Amino acid sequence: MIRAAVQTDPIDLAQELAAIEVPGAGGIATFAGLVRADDGVSALELEHYPGATDAALLALAERAAQRWSLLAVTVIHRVGVMYPGERIVFVGVAATHRAPALEACAFLIDRLKTDAPFWKRESRGADSRWVEPRGSDDDAAARWQEPG
Question: Is-contact 113 57, C-beta < 8 A?
Fold first, then answer.
């Protein structure tokens, strides 16, 4: 089972975890990202290009499923306006053993930051600004380059 979604609704962790607890799984790894209040951020707005973003998330999920022989993969990213403490992203994978589950989960969240077309705007009170991509995100994604 591979599922990728972009949504405005809150992410239900219990529901998403239950969906990847599939027969044969010996390891499940998840990551849930939250909106941070770094430097006084009061709101975060994410925009996306609907067709391209959905396709990018699905392609990443399929790459991970194939590379690590996963039994289930879910990638969900929210868009719209969110506030500190709200869930913004969920990645969950199931594999026959823990090592591939952990590696695939790390791969997905690292690659998601660079491969999916999202635009972020942070608000601090009445001021807002678009967020530029970070070099540290590129570095994290680069460690997952496939050989040759």
Answer: no
